[in-house]
Amino acid sequence: MTTIGVLGLQGDVREHVEALGRLGVDAPRVRRLSELDAVDGLIIPGGESTTIDKLLRAFDLFEPLRERIAAGMPVLGSCAGMILLATDIIGAIEGQQTVGGIPMTVRRNAFGRQVDSSEVELTWLPDGSTMHATFIRAPWVESHRDDVEVLATAAGPDGAPHPVAVRRGNAIATSFHPEIHAPGAVPDDRVHQLLASLV
Q: pTM to 2 decimals?
């Protein structure tokens, strides 16, 4: 059975576990090296990127996670997870590190503060369909290498379109929270399905 772990140090872990469960994917929480070693893929959830960075180092998971991603383990980073998968950060706090995986520069809190959270209808570029997306203190991709595929864009406060979902090889990152859906709405698990297809 496919096993995709959800990094369980901080952030909205439960919602990702539920999304993977709807796809029939075993989704253990990952907090220890032995648990990381046991999964086929991993989700780095939304939360606070600086806190997750510190906890990864405190739990001795930072380097092992970086090495697994570099070796090809499929990974999805949403919101804070997008920041952790970047190679460079605009607006980083002093000493903040990333595990890398996608050669891109992201801007922290690009869409504004918590009060600026919003729900947006995006075009999912792989098939041209509409996707409902929830942004909470979200980053955006400021720049990226040519081999990074843009999966969706959204207009920022500056009115310009910015990449908010990208993929390179085994790594996917979204500015928005694909695990969140409106109460009563049918869940849209396409991002999680894409990750599962890579495992």
A: 0.94
**From 16, 144, 162, 177, the catalytic residue:** 177
pLDDT digits (tens, 9 = 90+) for 12-69: 899 999 999 999 999 999 999 999 999 999 999 998 999 999 999 999 999 999 999 9
| Annotated catalytic residue 132 | no
The whole-angstrom separation of Cα 38 and Cα 173 is 22
Q: Dihedral sign for Cα 148, 150, 154, 160, please.
A: positive
Q: How confident is the model at residue 112 (pLDDT cuts 50, 70, 90)?
A: low
| Catalytic residue flag (residue 177) | yes
H-type helices in the chain, by residue range? 13-22, 33-37, 49-58, 62-70, 80-85, 190-198
Average pLDDT, the chain: 93
Query: Catalytic one among 15, 144, 162, 179?
Result: 179
Q: Is residue 67 flagged as an active site residue?
A: no
15, 79, 144, 162: the active-site residue: 79
